[in-house]
Amino acid sequence: MQTTEKQAALMAKAERMHQAVEDVQRQFDACPVQEKEYGIATQELYLPMSDGVKLYTLLYRPEGLPQIPVLVQRSCYPDQMDLYRVYEQELARRGYGYLVQICRGTGPSQGVWEPNVHERQDGYDTLQWLDAQPWAESIGYFGASYLALTGWAVADILPPKVKGMMLTVYGTDRFTSAYEKGLFRHDVLTGWAMANAGRPIDADYLESCRYRPHAEVDTALWGGRLPWYQDWIHAANREDPYWQQGWWKQLREIPGRTHVPVYIVDAWYDHHFGSAIRAYHALAPETKAHSWLDIGCWNHMSQPCIGWGSQQHLENGDVRRILTWFDLLLKEKKLPKARVRAYVMREDTWKELPAWPAPVQTVQTFFLSEQGRLTSQPEVGVCRFVYDPEDPCPTHGAESVLTIIAEAGSLLQPQPGYRPDVVSFVSEPLARPLPVCGQVRVRLRVSTDGGDTAFTAKLMEVFPDGRAYNIRGGITTIQADMPEGHTYAAGEIADVQVEMWDMAWTLQPGSCLRLDVSSSDFPQYAIHSNYAGLWSEQKQTRVAQQTLWLGEGCAIELPLAGPADG
Hints:
It is a single chain. By secondary structure, the chain is an alpha+beta fold. The protein has 14 helices and 25 strands. The protein is 23% helix and 28% strand. The strands form 5 sheets. Strands 1-2-4-3-5-6-9-10-11-12 form a 10-stranded mixed sheet, sandwiched between helices. α1 runs parallel beside α2. The mean pLDDT is 96.
């Protein structure tokens, strides 16, 4: 990366932080102080952990109160101190203490930075210290993204004074955030690794994602081996030992052992959404009975990400939620009752639901048919296209991106069949609303002339004026959907399934449903080489001839919270 590019990147990063600080301040300003305001006492600590490493810790306390509720965050982002100072000022004004600690090996904290590894023990040591302070009456833990990970890391080993947690845009099933059907989520983890390697990496991001074999990208372009990144890119299956033992297994099991109320907040177009929903489902029943789940519509940075219409009720900010949740737990000292709320797309409204996913009333099926049609009955036919891994479909309108976050959300899509390797299928206009609520599945009957390949599916609503906006997308590989022990053979006809993340979206009368099928979605997912084997070890690519065998085996299954169309 050239010097001017570096400067531009730094300036853009500083501007994003400035905007984040202003946004949080506006959120606090919209929640006026309802009680006496307090002055602030500040304490800077180097808190010793059990192994002797000292972590930089800032503690803010409202003056004049002998005992206080304290809210805690642990962060690996020392460059966000301006943001933490807003929380310090505003929480202390409202009678809360606030402790923010910088994770080991980052910023002024001692130790060696290795993502995830030390958060459980360091978080435990910190909370035990705080629990022992006589002025700390009660404790709440909150955070977003990695700051939520540091909360989940200790959720099952909390000291008695911790009464609840609010954890946003993160989940405990790391595999779900890393892979889909054997293909790596580049835009989440490759981008994050480059930004958090513990050393500057100046390599081009997209060049890094495309580097083959990808197992050598760190030594070739990043200035040296990243062992933890190597672990990620070599464990492409959920059953791999990396995910089934050690820290990631432990993290996945923590929700089931958590005994304090948890407020889980995530969003349709956050890259951790799938993992967050799994964390909610994994909560112990007695914990879920007192926990909340909010599903909104924004990206990982809580930014609006809808390219159509006007949304007046997004509620895309955490401050009001933080104050509502912890006022209830720590000040009113009440135990919450279970609550599930979801923002319904195309209705611009939040609905309180009995559970998530909401009960499905019916499943409506649309079949992929020749001449680019979606029909209510299967029609036998064949559809072919050529997929070249050297010319992948660019990601635009996605649910699992971070580095190119401007591409997250429901965005205006190109015209049907906008590339030779994109096949589009469109329904007749709908006669009534279709309230999709749950997981959409797309079944495909396919073949390829290679040893393996990928297929993508993107579902859209086509408005009456012809504009199309993505609802959900996903990807699969043939080998990932093969029966256990069966290796795909070139030319073999196989049934695969694209399993999309959950969604609440009400398709409107007069609109059409559209499905685009292709074989790549880059850099949201790694580019399939069309060869069999582990993606990160592939050295070359080949062009593939792809075939869809239309009929009973190619269909969209929509879970509906109401009656089917027609």
